[in-house]
């Protein structure tokens, strides 16, 4: 009898823990992405609040961008308590937010802040973000109050962490 009750209790515990997990996963699904013009995005690229920001410009259609996203996600997780914030700025087409970007975010369980840059004046904002940027993706900006570095290249975690450390 005790053994039977133990297994029933264990089963109920597993059942409830699975249900909690399902509810948690459903509640974490992204349903919208904030869209910015360059003028609206600019304050996110110039904060002076004591944090270090890692801003990655990417798109779901960019294979090197997608390949490096796990490095940014790991950095976001590892440095969350160290006053570092990762922001993923999508350059996907605005018409594809619901059909491509949001499903991509949910499928890959992206935890970093994701925003969409929706501004057709790329000749203006590309050079405003960094004068050396050709507009190619992926591109990354790492900055804080003391330092600002721009990279037009792909990263693996080790290289990304090294570059972050050089700014910290």
TrEMBL record:
Coiled coil: none annotated. CDD domains: TlpA_like_family. One of its GO terms (molecular function) is oxidoreductase activity. The keyword Membrane does not apply. Residues 24-168 form the Thioredoxin domain. It holds the Pfam family AhpC-TSA. InterPro entries: AhpC/TSA, Thioredoxin-like_sf, Thioredoxin_CS, Thioredoxin_domain, Thioredoxin_ResA/DsbE_sf. Keywords: Redox-active center. PANTHER family: THIOL:DISULFIDE INTERCHANGE PROTEIN DSBE, THIOREDOXIN-LIKE PROTEIN HI_1115. This is Thioredoxin.
């Amino acid at each position: 009898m005790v053994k039977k009750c133990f297994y029933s209790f264990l089963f109920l515990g597993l059942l409830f823990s699975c249900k909690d997990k399902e509810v948690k996963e459903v509640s974490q699904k992204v349903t919208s992405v904030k869209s910015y013009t360059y003028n609206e995005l600019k304050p996110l690229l110039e904060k002076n609040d004591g944090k270090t920001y890692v801003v990655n410009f990417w798109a779901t259609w960019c294979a090197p961008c997608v390949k490096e996203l796990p490095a940014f996600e790991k950095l976001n997780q590892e440095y969350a308590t160290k006053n570092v914030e990762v922001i993923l700025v999508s350059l996907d087409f605005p018409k594809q937010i619901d059909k491509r970007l949001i499903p991509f975010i949910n499928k890959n369980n992206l935890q970093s802040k994701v925003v969409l840059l929706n501004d057709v004046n790329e000749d203006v904002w590309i050079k405003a973000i960094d004068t050396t940027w050709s507009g190619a993706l992926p591109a990354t900006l790492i900055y804080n109050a003391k330092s600002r570095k721009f990279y037009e290249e792909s990263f693996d975690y080790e290289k990304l962490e090294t570059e972050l450390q050089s700014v910290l």
